[in-house]
Design goal:
Length: about 70
């Protein structure tokens, strides 16, 4: 993710966090989408996927719907 991508996310008031997790003895990727409120950042949506690519695809679809 480049600087311009980061600037766009922050301007929109969103942040995407992708982390590896173990679920039922399988490696998964947890995607958490944060939304900025007036005072703080809060968890907006969370979903797990088999690959980090799927996480970012899902997050992008949410961001497009909210733009």
């Amino acid at each position: 993710m480049g600087d311009s991508d980061i600037d766009i996310l922050l301007k929109m008031g969103f942040w995407v966090q992708v982390s590896p997790v173990i679920s039922n003895d399988k490696q998964m990727w947890n995607c958490e989408l944060y939304k900025k409120t007036k005072k703080t950042w809060g968890s907006y949506k969370v979903k797990s996927f088999k690959t980090p690519n799927k996480c970012y695809d899902w997050a992008l679809s949410i961001l497009i719907k909210n733009n």
